[in-house]
Amino acid sequence: MRILIVYTTRYGTTEKAVGLVKKLLEVKGHNVEVRRVEENPSPSGYDLLILAAPVYRDGPHWDLMEWVEKHKGELEEVPKAFLLVAMHLAGSVFMGKLHGGIAYAQPLIEAFEVPPFYGTLIGGEIDPDKLSDEDRRKMIRFYAVLGERLEKKSLFSEKDVEAFVRRTLLYYDWFGKHFKRGEVEKAKNFDFMEKVRELERTLG
Ligand SMILES: Cc1cc2nc3c(=O)[nH]c(=O)nc-3n(C[C@H](O)[C@H](O)[C@H](O)COP(=O)(O)O)c2cc1C
């Protein structure tokens, strides 16, 4: 399969995750190209597109969202999966509204007519000493809202990146390849639980 990974990063964690995704996909025999959103790559001509970005200010990094906006038409034609990197992984309900966790992915789902067929959130890293003064101030506020203090921490796990790659390939085989314009109907009636029962039968 020809796969394009489009990503952005500010402090390198997403880049580290993307490097591992590339390596794992190549081991499986796929042809992988990695491009930064800032280079404004074209998403046409690939079997699968992987979008990767850190979460900043409660959403996927704006550079990725701007690229998505620019290439909307082409993006509807290609099956997409996404990987977001964040610190507030569990998420919470705040004043009756979903906040953080996978809810950070909402703009990436709503940006498309044909949505990504799979996506997840993995843990990032924060090192106060490496942040710009402005980012440090923002992160102090971010943790204050959670009732915590800003300190160096890492939630990054290679196992989570491996799980992302495994599931992206599995779900691509099951239904992801139909997630392009004109083909979504084929995937609409996909019965997830029936697939699980079928697998159970084959596993004995
Ligand atoms: C200014 C700033 C804002 C951030 N906002 C959020 C946020 O809203 N939610 C969250 O879970 N993590 C937030 N983070 C944490 C980043 O997602 C995390 O540090 C990530 O690993 C950064 O990835 P990168 O190194 O690829 O830029 C923020 C970090 C910074 C520096």
Structure write-up:
- The chain is α/β, with parallel strands linked by helices.
- Helix content is 39%, strand content 23%.
- It contains 8 helices and 10 strands.
- The chain has helices at residues 13-27, 62-70, 72-75, 106-110, 133-145, 158-174, 184-188, 192-203; strands at 2-7, 31-36, 48-56, 59-60, 80-86, 92-94, 97-99, 118-123, 125-126, 153-154.
- The strands form 3 sheets. Strands 1, 2, 3, 4, 5 and 8 form a 6-stranded mixed beta sheet that branches.
- α1 (13-27) crosses α6 (158-174).
- Bound molecules: flavin mononucleotide (FMN).
- Flavin mononucleotide is lined by residues 9-14, 54-58, 85-88, 100, 124-126, 131, 135, 138-139, 142.
- Flavin mononucleotide binds at residues 9-14, 54-58, 85-88, 100, 124-126, 131, 135, 138-139, 142.
Q: Find the CATH topology.
A: Rossmann fold
- What compounds are bound to the protein? flavin mononucleotide
> Taking all residues together, what is the mean pLDDT?
95
CATH class type: Alpha Beta
Fraction of helical residues: 25-40%
Largest sheet: 6 strands, mixed
Form type: globular
The helix tally amounts to 8
Number of strand elements: 10
Report the C-alpha radius of gyration, rounded.
Answer: 18 Å
Give the H and E element order: EHEEEHHEEEHEEHEHHH
The unreliable regions are none
How many structural domains does the protein architecture include? 1
How much strand content do the residues show? 15-25%
The CATH superfamily name is Flavodoxin domain
| Head-to-tail CA distance between termini | 31 Å
Overall structural class, as computed from helix and strand content, comes to: alpha/beta
Q: Specify the CATH architecture.
A: 3-Layer(aba) Sandwich
